[in-house]
Structures are given as C-alpha cells and as structure tokens.
Write a structure and sequence with these properties.
The protein is mainly alpha-helical and about 700 residues long. The protein has helices at about 10-15, 30-45, 50-95, 105-110, 120-125, 145-160, 175-190, 195-200, 245-260, 270-280, 280-290, 300-320, 325-335, 350-360, 370-375, 385-410, 440-460, 470-490, 495-510, 520-545, 560-580, 585-605, 610-625, 675-680, and strands spanning about 220, 225.
C-alpha cells in the first residue's frame, strides 16, 4: 500500500486509539504545549455536528471494550496459572487420582464410574482393564475470538475511511448535482490528511451491518449479501498508477463516450469517489478501458490493464462476491484487448462465466433489501434517489450479464452452452430508474434478448437428431411472430439494437438449418441470411455517415460484440454472394472493403490497446484479396474444411462436412459451424448449383 507521508498507518492508528488517557489526578502534569494541543483537539471535536460526536464516542467505546477484554484476559490467565499450581500441589499431597471423577474407560463408554477414594473402578476390575484417571483442567473463558472480532471491526472501519472525508449531510433528499460532484471531488483530495476525518467518517457507517465475518450473517432478508472487497490498498491511485485528476478524466470519458454503447452503471451515483470507496476492481476496470482510448493516457493504459487482470484473479482467489465485481468483469469482457494471434491469452469467456455465476449466487435478479444498500460506503449519507438508483443498477446488471452471456456464447460458436438463462422469462422492467435517452435502447435490447433467449431454450429442448417432419417449422413459429412484432415497434429507433436484431435473426435461421425439413429450401434460407447481412452492413454504413465518428456512442468506441457483428455481416455477405449471386461479386467486395476500412478506423481510435477491430480488418482483406500476402491469422486449432458447396442444395443440411475433431475459434467471429466454413480464407469458391 503506497501511502503519502500524511496517510495514517492502519496498525499504528489502531494502536493510538487503544491508548486510553491516564486517570485524573495521576501521571505527570501536562506541559503548556500538550495542554494547548488537547484544547485544540477538543475544540475540533466539538465543532463537529452532535450526531457525529455521538458516533465518535461509540467508536471510542468500542476501542475501550477491546482494552477491557484484553485486561480481563490477562487477569484470567493469571487466575488460571494460580489454579493450575494449586491443583498440582493438591495432587502431590493427595495422590494422582484426587481430582478425577471418572476413569478414561468409563468416559469412553459413557457409563457411570464407581470408585472409592481413587481406587480402580468396579467396571475395570471386572473386565481386568487398566483403570486410568485423566488429568482434568478447567477450561476457563476464552476471549481471543471476541477480541479478534472487535479488532476486525475497527480495521474495517479505519480501512474504509482512508479514502474518505466527512462531508455535511444534504439538507434535502435531492441535493444539487453540482454540489454533490464538488463534495465528491473534495473528499477524494483531502480524505487522508485529517485524523479527525478518519473517526468522523467511520461514525457514518453502521457497525451492525459491517463486513461479514461468519456464515451466520450471509443472508439479509433472503438475499445473499456476498463478500465485498475489503483491501482498499489496491486502489489504483494508492498504487501510484494514476492521479486523482487522471481518474476523474477517465471516468468522465467512460460515461460520456463508452456507456451509450453498453448502458452500464449510473453516472449520477457512480462518481469517481463512490467507485474508489466501494470497489478498487471496478474503479481499475473502468480506468483501464477508458485509458486505452484517451490520448493523454498512453503511459497509464498498460499498467492499469495489468492491474485490472491482477484484481480479476484476486477476486477469484479471495472469494469476493459483489455486484461491483460482476460489473467490473462485464466492462473487461465488452472491451477486452485482442490477445496474440494464437488466442491463448483471451480471457473473455472465463470472465463472462465468472460474472454469470456470481450474479446468480448473490441474486442480482431480486430487488435489493434496504439493509443491503446501507452497506455501501460513502463520504456522506446516500439520498433516497441514490438508493433507488443503486437498486435499479443492481437489477439492470443482472439483465446485462444475461445478454452478454447470450451474445458471447453465440458469437463464439458456443450457442450449445446457453439456454437463455432467466431472461427467457417475460422481463419485468418496472425497476428501471430513468437515466438518459439510452434507457429506450436498454428496454428494446432486453425485450429482443428475451425473444432470442426463449428461442434458444426451445431449440435446446428439441430432439434434433430424430426430429420428425415439421420440426423446423415449429421452431420458426416459436419466435417469428414475436420477432416481427418487436421489429414493428423498435426497428429504426436505435442503430445498436437494429444491428443486434439482424444478427440474432441470422442466428435463428442458422439454428433452423440444423433441423431436417422437406418444405423449405435451404437455398431460400441462405438468401434470406444474405439479405439480413446486407441490411446489417447498410445500418452500419448509415451509422458511420450520420453520427460523428468520435461522438458519444459513436463507432469509435464500439465494444467487441459490435465489432464482431460488423465482421460477421461482412464475412456472410462476401461468402454467400459468391454462392448465390456471382454477378454482384465486385460490388459486394467493395462493401466488404468499406467494412475493413471502418474496422481499421475503430482500431486506430483505441491507440493504447490492441483492438479486435484491427484483427478483423486484416481478415476481411485476406478474404477479398486472397492473392496478396497476408499474415497467417488462423489459430492453430482451426482445421481445413472438406465441404462441397453442392451440398447446400440439399434440403436436409446436416453439417457433416465438419471433421470429428473440429474446434471452433473466436477468429471466425461467428456463431455456427457453417460460418466457420464460410469464414475460412483458403476455401475455393466453387460454382453454385
């Protein structure tokens, strides 16, 4: 923990608190300097509000209790030693069996031991056994655990306020936003320089609802409370990774530029200071992602990203389970840096799995209890509006985790691993607290994912190997009407969801191709897929032309799922146009190259991290211009395809072209084995028949 010279050391702070003032009338007479210092300290304390003074007295009373228990333990140990010595003297005088009531054998058999004056008992005499009497010692009262629990409470209180400073409580339930922001900024600057601030801020936190230390306190009204982060020495500012000014700039960049594409967190609550006093992991994750885009953070970004990965591993090792840990994992999944070309360093799937498990374990799907919200640390009392927003963010996070799970599973060819989770239920969005105009995008996205998740659930429940005639038609009917109704209401209102909807529609058609059918031509379905892919690219190009590239929510800040959608649509159009409509090949190639150029621009907008966009731009160029020399972008596990394009004319398409040891790789940017074939760069474009 790298602290400034003015920062109090935690153990020494506790030690200073544990030193009680000498009783009146004893000890040396105070000097003029010490008397003046005591007078100043007393005036400082009395200048605080009365409620704060009362809570400071409570903290000091807790410290006094520790000292009293410690003194009692010392007296008890003296009494024990005296009692032991007395018993030993009695044993020497009266014999070794004087203070035992039952022998070892009778104790083990749990029977009454009949003995007279320490003689062998009747049971041992009858059985011819050795009669041995144990040396019994009084157990006495153990205070070690009580002392440790009290010290843990003090440690938690002092640790939680090392980053904070007392701020006057608001006079109304809805304080002015400018005043709140100014108070947060001042608190982050001055928290470590006022010793009285440590106690005053500690008094603002309820000791009864503090950190959980045993399994008996893990539930609050049937909501799993989890385990919040407690090591605030991992704060990126205290680690020397950036300054307060840097963090304020990066958090502002995240909420203004990146959040419109992810709809994550609430800028009205998640201020830089709030993030720091509640989650070093989430603070670092946001700072690392924003720094990769920020021109002034070239030297900060690599170390912040490394620290974020360290905290991700630490969260698993320490068993940290909180909504902030889940939110941090989501940020890292959506804007993960591109690993090396062998893809062995990609951790998105692992982080997503951990976020999904934690979200289910701590029940983010349920409305939070008021007691749970009261556990949040802050430099002041949270208003009712902020409490409501925190509760809304908690439930919003659960839906975002479910949507991220579906997107990553399908985009990486792992649709078989998800059945839609609980998002297949009709979503209740009554908890949503309005934040800004992006709320409409969030609601549209949740309802779209509900349709897609329910279709995935239906598909998983089908026996596709022995599906009877009409199985494909029943599967399509399970989602077609709802998807069409959704499009009538939402298409054209938000480009991000329009692109996602086209992508999901393609996914569902591809899933239907796995089900035998004698009524619908496979060739007709492939034409429909191609049309949807073209529609996806047209939406992207309009987005590029109509919205400034680096505007809030602009394509410059596209997260990995959106990047995959772009590459996915371009690969589909390129391959299917050659199979279905060869005369338009040149025009299609031009559109694909437009997508490659756009992806290059997206990669360039993130100069301090290796973007997935640059990788996919190279791949698209290798598809359009196979004769040119391009680096080998294929991960080693991708195998050569032996697929014959003539098989596409068969109505019952069974994907038998895939080898037995086929393993899907993220580099194909697609969600189905047929597209793994379509994305392979060295497949001959055989004529369509």
């Amino acid at each position: 923990m790298s602290l400034t010279p003015d920062t109090p050391n935690l153990p020494s702070a506790r030690a200073r608190l544990a030193i009680a003032p000498p009783p009146s009338g004893t000890g040396p007479t105070p000097t003029h300097r010490s008397a003046r210092r005591q007078s100043t300290d007393s005036a400082s304390v009395h200048s605080l509000p009365s409620s704060v003074q009362r809570r400071i007295e409570r903290i000091l009373h807790l410290v006094s209790a520790v000292r009293k228990i410690d003194n009692d333990a010392i007296d008890l140990r003296k009494e024990r030693r005296s009692a032991i010595r007395a018993r030993e003297r009695a044993k020497r005088e009266e014999g070794p069996l004087a203070d035992a009531k039952a022998c070892t054998a009778c104790r083990k058999a749990k029977t009454k031991c009949f003995n007279v004056d320490g003689a062998p008992c009747t049971r041992c005499q009858t059985g011819g056994k050795s009669c041995v009497y144990p040396d019994l010692r009084a157990r006495g009262r153990r205070a070690d655990r009580t002392i440790q629990e009290l010290l843990n409470q003090i440690d938690d209180e002092l640790t939680s306020v090392l980053l904070t400073d007392p701020v006057p409580k608001p006079t109304s339930s809805k304080p002015n936003s400018a005043t709140r922001a100014e108070a947060d900024d001042q608190a982050a600057h001055s928290a470590l320089h006022n010793p009285l601030g440590v106690l005053a801020t500690a008094a603002e936190h309820s000791g009864e609802i503090g950190r959980v230390h045993s399994s008996s306190g893990l539930y609050l009204n049937n909501i799993w409370s989890g385990k919040a982060e407690t090591d605030f020495s991992q704060d990126p500012i205290l680690q020397g990774l950036l300054t307060e000014e840097d963090l304020n700039r990066l958090v502002a960049l995240y909420f203004i530029k990146l959040r419109p594409l992810f709809l994550h967190l609430d800028p009205n609550v998640h201020t830089p200071n709030f993030l720091r006093v509640n989650s070093p992991f989430l603070t670092t994750a946001i700072a690392a992602v924003a720094a990769s885009y920020d021109p002034e953070s070239g030297l900060l970004a690599p170390r912040l990203e490394e620290h974020a990965h360290h905290l991700a591993s630490r969260a698993f090792a320490q068993g940290e389970k909180s909504v902030e840990v889940v939110q941090a994992f989501l940020v890292m999944v959506h804007w993960a840096s591109c690993p090396s070309d062998d893809w062995l360093g990609d951790r998105s799937w692992m982080y997503q799995g951990q976020a999904m498990r934690l979200a289910c374990e701590i029940r983010l799907d349920l409305p939070p209890d008021r007691e749970l919200l009261n556990t949040y640390r802050h430099t002041r009392a949270l208003t009712e509006d902020e409490m409501r927003r925190l509760g809304s963010c908690r439930q919003r996070t659960y839906l975002l985790v479910c949507m991220s799970e579906i997107a990553l599973a399908t985009n990486s060819g792992r649709a078989d691993t998800t059945s839609g989770h609980r998002i297949i239920r009709p979503p209740d969005l009554s908890f949503v607290v309005p934040i800004d105009e992006t709320d409409e995008t969030f609601i549209a996205s949740v309802r779209l994912n509900h349709i897609f998740g329910k279709a995935l659930h239906h598909w998983h429940g089908m026996d596709r190997d022995t599906a009877e005639t009409g199985g494909r038609e029943r599967f399509v009917r399970s989602w077609r009407v709802e998807l069409d109704d959704w499009k009538k209401e939402w298409v054209g209102k938000t480009r991000l969801v329009d692109v996602t909807a086209a992508n999901f529609h393609v996914m569902l058609i591809l899933l239907s191709l796995r089900i035998p059918s004698s009524r619908e031509s496979t060739q007709g379905l492939l034409r429909q897929i191609c049309e949807l892919a073209i529609q996806m690219l047209v939406t992207i190009l309009r987005w590029r032309d109509e919205v400034p590239f680096d505007a809030p929510g602009g394509l410059a800040y596209a997260h990995n799922f959106l990047i995959v959608h772009i590459a996915y649509g371009a690969v589909l159009v390129h391959k299917l146009s050659r199979l279905l409509d060869k005369p338009k090949t040149a025009e299609v190639d031009e559109r694909v190259m437009d997508m490659a150029t756009l992806l290059d621009h997206i990669a360039a907008a993130r100069p301090h991290a290796k973007s997935f966009a640059g990788y996919y731009a190279k791949q698209l160029r290798s598809l359009v211009q196979p004769s040119r020399h391009h680096p080998n972008l294929q991960p080693p596990q991708v195998v050569a395809s032996t697929f014959d394009p003539q098989m596409l004319s068969n109505d019952a398409f069974d994907f038998s072209f895939l080898p037995n040891n086929y393993e899907f790789s993220l580099d194909a940017s697609i969600s189905d084995p047929i597209l793994s074939f379509l994305a392979a760069p060295n497949i001959a474009d055989s004529p369509w028949q």
